[in-house]
Amino acid sequence: MLNDNSRKNEEEGIKALAKALRNGGTLLNIGCPVCSYPLIRINDKIYCKVCNSEVLIYKDEKDLPKEIRKALKKETPQKEDTHSAIKQSLEKKIENLRKRLDESDDPDEIMKLSKTIDKLLETLEKVD
Fold first, then answer.
1. What's residue 77's pLDDT?
2. Which of the two ends of the chain, N or C, has the fewest CB atoms closer than 10 A to its terminal CB?
3. Residue 48 near residue 35 (C-beta atoms within 8 A)
4. 30, 39 in Cβ contact below 8 A?
5. Alpha-carbon torsion (73, 76, 82, 85), positive or negative
6. What DSSP assignment string belongs to 54-117?
């Protein structure tokens, strides 16, 4: 439940949003990450008029500024640990299959091992 001050800020934000729309702003189908109200584009910048702040949107994590990427990695060590563990498992499996491939003379087995290694390498590339 919103208190009176929050409700007043919300009402002012909605009025500001309406005014920005009347002045040529474009309503986006993206919600604010803080309050979930629709964002608006004004002169190539995106704003949340309810939170009264500019919002930056990046299509891909690699497009983020370096310092933000670093901060995100520090905030999500579990994800990084899982990522690292998956990568190590894939590398270990690939190496084991490579050894079996070296030892094999059976054409069918060589084909199966090659296909499996190829799929694992594709997966490893996606993980990276």
1. 53
2. N
3. yes
4. yes
5. positive
6. E----SSGGGS-HHHHHHHHHH-HHHHHHHHHHHHHHHHHHHHHHHHHHH---HHHHHHHHHHH
